[in-house]
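seq as requested:
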Amino acid sequence: MSSSDAIAAHLEWQPFAHRADCAKPVWEIDYQPESDARRSRRGGPEHSCPNEECGHHDRYDRISVRVLCRSCGIVHLISGEEYTTRTTTTVRTGYGQPPKKVAGLWLYPGPPLLDLRGYDSPGAYLCSRRQVDRLSEDDIVGVVTEGRGKRGGTVYHAAIGPDFRPPSRGLSGYADWAKTSGEKPFTTVTAAAKWVAAELDAAAATDPKEGQEQ
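struct tokens:
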């Protein structure tokens, strides 16, 4: 399990902005599905496809999402065609769960190792020195990832020093890590987090500037 899924869950999202003087920044979110909508003559060219079963042509399914703040009056409108919807939980998405403090670090969960029933524990944790509402690249100092041992048991690996690579050509972003815990795995998340904390402390002792940045 790489850290890419956890990074995508926490970093590759942009929050909607309220007005700077908004007194009560709360979003009211609604959606409006529309099936078999007809494309207007000026709504773009008719879709065509050699597949006779294709559902494009001049009719399509559309969804509109309205994100509204009654306090500052800002409204964001989002619409798309050929949409899909799915109701899930923060356990499955890997975002929205509270972080847990281990070895002086805040561990932010990512999605499970596999999107299957029975896989409910995070496949990776992003490590931060501080607790924040939303992680940024500057907050992330290490990672703990889940894997499988030689006999199929759950094990963990760790790394520090992320060099983030942005999303490109439809692929999620990821990070190259300056140092990893090696081939020998840890048996618990706590043990892996302790390795991250110890390595960060050692790096800070060697380079005081790095310690101040964290």
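Strands lie at 28-38, 59-68, 75-81, 100-102, 105-109, 124-128, 140-148, 154-165, 174-180.
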